[in-house]
Amino acid sequence: MKRLLHLLIIALLFLNGCSETAATKKLENVGLLFPATINDQVWNTKGYKGLLKIQSTMNVKGFYKENIKTEEETKAALEELRDNGVNLVFGHGNIYSDLFQKVKGDFPDMHFVSFNGEVKGDNMTGIHFKAESMGFFGGMVASEMTSTKKVAVIAAYPWQPEIEGFEKGVHYKHPEVQVETVYINDWEDKEKALSHTRQLIASGADIFYPAGDGFNIPVIEEVKRNGLYAIGFVSDQSDLGKETVLTSTVQNVVNLYELIAEQYNRGELKEGNLYFDFKDGILSMGTFSPVVPASIKQEVENEISSYIKTGKLPN
Question: Are 34 and 49 in contact (CB under 8 A)?
Fold first, then answer.
């Protein structure tokens, strides 16, 4: 009888242990892959800061690899991360939605998070910003502040939703304002972006929206040298010139990283595609320049409040 009772207790302990393990997805260590350098001071830098925040608030180790762009590079990087006990991996760009899909079968104990690309399947989460909205409100400011009635967008790729949003925002109240958009077809090509910027300055554009990571700051500096205006991108870029940067379209990436890691640690991170917007506190407008009249700032803030309540842009 004692032997039977002893075996029963062991069985119950074993079952309880299995149940706890199956129901819990504790974060062990976190990894982060970048398609370029972390020193761009815009998108990639914010991802790196997100990694640092996870380390500091969740008491885990963080590992990162730069310039990971191919399937072979991705697989080698993931093997290294696995050896360091990583079970949550972020890919800081849309290229990782496909790259992770191709290699995830070799890493069944990892959960993969990528940005701005559609994902499907187990252990895959796609993060998406409803960036049309932030572009729209940036465009509103540009349309109210232009003197030449010509504004310019220096974009990386045509698929960026903030570009269409910016154009709609410009034309919301001032359809007569011309929007000249050029595509660099690269996140990093500073020389090409600067060449287009100079041409657009010569053609009369007086407000610029440089929507690309590696060339964003050089374009704003060029605009500043010419005494013109810019709308900042991804970060609050008022520190580049309060008289130059009218406001910024901000993605609060650092807080989003922490949110995703916390959800994973609680076993609550959903697979599939997740979308974030102003109402989530992930998108916002940056500091307004003192050259922007208070009435324009108030109008934009009122429209944002309405958008948060209704989910509908004013156009």
Answer: no
